[in-house]
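Bug: token stream looks shifted between consecutive jobs. Job 1:
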Amino acid sequence: MNHYDTIKKLFAQTLAERPGSYIVEELFTRFSSIADLMSVTEQELMQIKGIGKVRAKQILAALELARKLNVPAESPYIIRSPRDVAKLLIPEMRYLQCEHFVVLFLNTKNGVIARETISIGSLNALIVHPREVFRSSIKRSSASIIVAHNHPSGNPSPSTDDVQITQRLVEGGNIIGIEVLDHVIIGGDQYYSMKEHGLM
């Protein structure tokens, strides 16, 4: 049994759930790596149906136990190009029916240390507050970030709002000292990199 399976079994026991129950499976679908699990917050956990404040605290306690047992993290996924971002996100974002805004938090070697969905919008609209993006970035001690969102229409071309929020995030990152490397838009099996197209 590998470390990830060990943690999964530990969570099932902590929550008095079967390993294949909805809560356990949803937990490990949303936070699909050890790095994601180790940086999860109580608020993120409570977004999962069936997890209230008490269960969220149980999960955080199990995570703290895992840290004390010194469970090693897996090697982070390295981002070398927008294509790497697309390969990571397209499988889970291509079928979403409303817009999701995701942040990839990177270390100094462009390895993904965590991933978080910051905002979920409607079919064709999304509200993103830079403060939410950078609050999470600072919490995770990110060296830099890449932001991404999906277009349910399947067309990854950016809207005027997409360009404007990107500019606001870049400006905020420059002030705080956390560089925004790219904004990648996912549309079906296609992607659009604002960095590659000179929009940031």
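Job 2, same session, no restart:
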Amino acid sequence: MTALFPFDNSYARLPSHFFGRVAPTAVEAPRLIRLNRALAVDLGLDPDRLESPEGIEVLAGRRVPEGAEPLAAAYAGHQFGQFVPQLGDGRAILLGEVVGRDGRRDIQLKGSGPTPFSRRGDGRAALGPVLREYLVSEAMHALGIPTTRALAAVTTGERVIRETVLPGAVLTRVASSHIRVGSFQFFAARGDVEGLRALADHAIARHDPEAARADNPYRALLDGVIRRQAALVARWLTVGFIHGVMNTDNMSIAGETIDYGPCAFLDTYDPATAFSSIDRHGRYAYGNQPRIALWNLTRLAEALLPLLSEDETQAVAEAEAALTGFAGQFEAAYHGGLNRKLGLATTRDGDPALAGDLLKTMAENEADFTLTFRRLGEAVPGPDGESDPATVEAVRSLFIDPTAYDRWAKGWRRRLKDEAGDAAARRQMMRAANPAFIPRNHRVEEMITAAVERQDFAPFETLLTVLARPYDDQPDFARYAEPPEGGGRGYRTFCGT
């Protein structure tokens, strides 16, 4: 019989100080909550075997599969601006890597027991955070945003102690890699240039093979990470996503969204929104995310300085030149996304101001971010330049002062007249850019409560069904598109570790 996972473990072949070898800790009574069968097939895995007793034991960490080389990766990181020289996988264990349709992918267990980097923690995960990460990461995938994926969630039959006693669970996470900005900081902080070089060469081979042919491969690696992060954060903003903890150890060089701890989505639009209970000063607020991304990338550039050039002045010049590219790349991706949300297929000089005026008006009038853009797509003027009054009223009603929307919409309609194409095509473009369904925070909390307190996973399954088709209307699930009472003000998320 073939192996459950056809592992080929390139990270495990790196020097031993890159990680600590550690096996998952066995659990009492694992039970499968859900297997992502479609993802399993994409990875070249057998979903039926993964759902078998053998497969469930592997997904729970009770059994180490053939070919696995379990390890916990070492990394450092800036946490809320403060540098910690050693962090590492404290409750996650990389089983190995598989090569599927999308290339090489890590298979990692989260909540699988203590590691050398647990820092007196138990290495376990509670059920709520596991379900949140499964749901939100799969929702992000359906929205078209680069992300780690969830292969499976299992309960362990054991309890974990946080503020209270909670059911334990394990998430199987899939990622292009788990190399972070903090991975490079780990070696740079120790002055380990050879370790830094080995990690950079590994990252180039895995994520930027074309960089190996560049005149300066390490500058090309840095350019690639900057490009991917600029595009990623722009996509976050266009769907109202707030990561919550954008520490450097939570920034993947693969350009994937990673670590869904206190993440959340905007209801009422306010760029100062920060839901995380530990982000007391709004460092990682919605509107700060581009600035923090550049700050994190600057820390990566600093770590790479010994590789960019043997001459320190030249190395700094290379780093600064690379970082200078972030703003333009982010702005192009962000404003391109906003243009699509507004139904604009071409770009004009006044478009950023038009989009900015709408966002400002939304903030002043406490309009819901997702609903405003979705309903705007239905209010596109027809060939006669007029919109259906009912669709216009549906948008206006989201604003405390509907006339504020009216004033903005006059400029929008004038701008649309400059565009080629008919109204139907424009509506279709806007529907593809403006989701009807996001993981509304109150629905996510209802789902977690049902699972944790009543062992009822039906809300979890329903949300997965709805969020798998975020751009479709789905009339039977219309209530899942509605915002909470009060616009979500006062909502808090927690890290869950």
